[in-house]
Amino acid sequence: MRRSVVLHRVPFFETDAMGIVHHANYVRWLELARVAWMDEHDRPYREWVAQGFHFATTRVVVDYRRAVAFDDRVAIATWLDWVAGASLAMAYEIDREGERVATARTEHALVGTDGRPRRLPAPRRAGLEALAASRGRQREARRAKTT
Fold first, then answer.
1. How many domains does the chain have?
2. Cα–Cα distances in Å, from 1 out to 41, 80, 82, 135?
3. What pLDDT is stored for residue 134 in this prediction?
């Protein structure tokens, strides 16, 4: 499992009236980390786009554990959890000074510019599968729930 870590200093505009980071900003942080992971371990996202593909977000789950405030410094770690025929999942840990403040997971479907699902090209899928934390385990669990 290969991780990437993005460091982020919280600007004032990301906070709400209570003085803490508004929950919607965590989703933005996940995207920053996901794109950095792709740059470091797969290929830059812009190359997928140049080939006519996008990874549409199909699911976002964030478990908030502690509040984050203006000027806090957070580290957003991410890794590829699993890969399937036309989809993948990323997992995240967000820490502030060594304290876990949130965990998250996103799922994505590969789509063409027309918005229709596309299978991951075989060579790209094989490369991603080699980087995934759980090879097939999550996909099998999802199938078991639907039967």
1. 1
2. 10, 7, 10, 10
3. 81
